[in-house]
């Protein structure tokens, strides 16, 4: 399993671009999942880093979480608003595990309350997905070229420069 912590160690460039874009967009990303019929679904989501893990949690009873419960594969894309990609762009690929441990949920909701003032401490999660990253990429444009950085677990980062 490639946790967020391990990913940031193995792919510091991609992790930096993802984190920068994630914060700049108010934590908003686009989540790609597969519907029951196999067609793709794109949904907004606000992934969070907690205890060295990337979490994909949110409102209960949403179709995107039904998709992930059925087919654990996903792609998470930073919200791109600049067509020139001046601040970069990143995608994460992987699968999720639905963590049902109420102690973990409680720790998360207490931290969320402390850090953001959002009070979900008495709420039940339909799903509490922890990401296992299987690949990632980022794009950065500078000085008349585009660098595409690609990462796979255990292989480190590889940069492809396009002019």
TrEMBL record:
Cited InterPro entries: F420H2_bilvrd_red/Heme_oxyg (IPR052019), Pyridox_Oxase_N (IPR011576), Split_barrel_FMN-bd (IPR012349)
Annotated Pyridoxamine 5'-phosphate oxidase N-terminal domain residues: 27-109
Keyword Oxidoreductase carried by entry: yes
SUPFAM superfamilies: FMN-binding split barrel
UniProtKB keywords: Oxidoreductase
Name by which UniProt lists this protein: Pyridoxamine 5'-phosphate oxidase family protein
């Amino acid at each position: 399993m490639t946790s967020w912590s391990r990913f940031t160690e193995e792919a510091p460039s991609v992790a930096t671009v993802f984190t920068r874009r994630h914060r700049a967009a108010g934590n908003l990303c686009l989540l790609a999942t597969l519907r029951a019929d196999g067609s793709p679904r794109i949904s907004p989501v606000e992934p969070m880093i907690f205890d060295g893990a990337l979490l994909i949690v949110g409102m209960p009873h949403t179709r995107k979480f039904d998709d992930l419960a059925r087919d654990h594969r996903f792609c998470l894309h930073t919200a791109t608003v600049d067509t020139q990609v001046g601040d970069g762009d990143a995608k994460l690929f992987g699968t999720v595990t639905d963590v049902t441990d109420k102690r973990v949920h409680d720790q998360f909701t207490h931290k969320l309350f402390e850090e953001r003032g959002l009070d979900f401490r008495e709420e039940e999660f339909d799903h509490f997905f922890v990401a296992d990253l299987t690949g990632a990429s980022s794009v950065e444009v500078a000085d008349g070229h585009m660098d595409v950085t690609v990462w796979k677990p255990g292989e480190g980062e590889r940069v492809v420069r396009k002019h």
